[in-house]
From TrEMBL:
Keyword set, alphabetical order: Glycoprotein, Glycosyltransferase, Golgi apparatus, Membrane, Multifunctional enzyme, Signal-anchor, Transferase, Transmembrane, Transmembrane helix
PANTHER family on file: GLYCOSYLTRANSFERASE-RELATED (PTHR12270), XYLOSYL- AND GLUCURONYLTRANSFERASE LARGE1 (PTHR12270:SF48)
Membrane-spanning residues: 12-31
Name of the protein in its database record: LARG1 glucuronyltransferase
Amino acid sequence: MLGICRGRRKFLAASLTILFVPAVTWIYLFAGSFEDGKPVSLSPLESQPHSPRYTASSQRERESLEVRVREVEEENRALRKQLSLAQARGPAHRRANHSKTYSMEEGTGDSESLRAGIVAGNSSECGQQPVVEKCETIHVAIVCAGYNASRDVVTLVKSVLFHRRNPLHFHLIADAIAKQILATLFQTWMVPAVRIDFYDADELKSEVSWIPNKHYSGIYGLMKLVLTKTLPSNLERVIVLDTDITFATDIAELWAVFHKFKGQQVLGLVENQSDWYLGNLWKNHRPWPALGRGYNTGVILLLLDKLRKMKWEQMWRLTAERELMSMLSTSLADQDIFNAVIKQNPFLVYQLPCFWNVQLSDHTRSEQCYRDVSDLKVIHWNSPKKLRVKNKHVEFFRNLYLTFLEYDGNLLRRELFGCPSETDVNSENLQKQLSELDEDDLCYEFRRERFTVHRTHLYFLHYEYEPAADNTDVTLVAQLSMDRLQMLEAICKHWEGPISLALYLSDAEAQQFLRYAQGSEVLMSRHNVGYHIVYKEGQFYPVNLLRNVAMKHISTPYMFLSDIDFLPMYGLYEYLRKSVIQLDLANTKKALIVPAFETLRYRLSFPKSKAELLSMLDMGTLFTFRYHVWTKGHAPTNFAKWRTATTPYRVEWEADFEPYVVVRKDCPEYDRRFVGFGWNKVAHIMELDAQEYEFTVLPNAYMIHMPHAPSFDITKFRSNKQYRICLKTLKEEFQQDMSRHYGFAALKYLTAENNS
């Protein structure tokens, strides 16, 4: 409504201007064209230079009046043109507002007009406005491989989701690593009106592996060439994006450009904004053939149905084979081959305005694409330097990128009202479970947390590890939040084996962690540490969910269930592998206990042997873990016996027992109902006992808890009476569930609790 009112005001102002300005001007000219009551000619042909009444000053006045008349006439013509355009656009604009459809920016398929005025093409004020229907699905294809590219995809998707008003269907051509990461991410993200389909990139390698490619994207940088074969045959059009793209507008505007394709135009591309294809960057620089500056393939509009009819596969293959005979390899991956095809068939391309792909590479002409940074639509970080690229407005671009990088992805779970979403069984089950909870229950928030789906990004950093062939390998499993980040380097120095960590972070904290890890020589030298980000949501620390995430993504047959505050003894990794064989853990249900100790000193000379640890115990430098706060938690370990033990010994379960253990990877998960502080490990050990695990203490193993400030959750436990009441309620419900599940054998847990 506001837009309509503004349009009417502009229309009225333009009308008055056209009527008023000429009238005033001609009155002024008419009055000024008389001297002594006689008319004076304005034409130089009619002037009388020999007349006594004629002077040099009057000639200058007449000339200035003539110039002024021409200026007024030019202004009038411009105003009339603007008024006619406003009249033509007004009804369509109002219809667009009422129907809630989304318009595109004015583009051009004429490369000459674009080159003549790149900036002029940015304005959408006077252009035709093909529209995208409100609930029309927009299809986007992305090629993604590896750990780093998976992170980049998330930022790209965030920028698209932030602006979008239409259902989206992402077609991800991914390798096994990216598929595992992104499938879990989107499954736990649960964004309405977003569909994800995966296509195996490894199966496509044979289609392009015959093309030598020098570009850093490797073989995956060629896979956009085979999208006509890869994507569903009934898919008619798709927007193809590189992973290093950031959107600054609604992607529906770009989708609408398809309506402007004419004739045999099947590719929508932006002109390349560097001099690469001009061949003048250095001596003997010889790029692939291209039309003028060539085109950049970071953003492509593909009319798939027409491409298939044109036999695109045959077209690009023949071109690539011919050019490779002289070029030997591609330098810019698929972009070289696309340009070679366009050089031979220029009618295929519809040239997009360059603000649809502002390329921030070195020696770029991207600054000519916009008058102001607000004109931007799509930013393309297509330099290997990425955010470190040189550009006049790089700070603005970098801040825009960082905004989406650190933006809370949970806020993007927005419903598209009026657009029906596909039925999601997981989402329906979740809603059903939540609806069964009593919101008036004082422990409602505790119960609700059990069903909260936390967005999860697996393998946030590069991970590469092959378990030992002897099937004795052990992974250390732990969880942490931002305030325990300083423990990572120390743990890596103490434990040389594989580690699986679940980190509970916000989007912004995840980026802080990334910078911390990339700046650490210790962490960057370790490729056998799996970092799994579980994004923050809700008011409780989901400790057992985090443990389950870390447990689920190990590749070794055994795991050491630890906590991030503990440093294992030097050599514990190899000792545990030997113990696995010695105690036949593969064929027996055992939980091997690593005795836990603690120090109150922030600076500790870590004991290098059991003898040295016993000496420090006697001196009061070390203590058995929580002996002064929660003795029952580790008392069954029998530290007195451990002091002199030389062989493993068995201990029995007791109430509130919560040791740190080594178990097979198929052991039960932690119970998610326990969040924050209290009973999270106790319940797990109880379940291990119910499943008849034997608890065996290792005589020459130990771990030491390092001091730290109290966690927020333990503070809530100590200060909030309702917190303690709810924890007691959850504990009783867990014990009842144990009795129902394990029958008569589980009655001992109720008895033990009553006696403790």
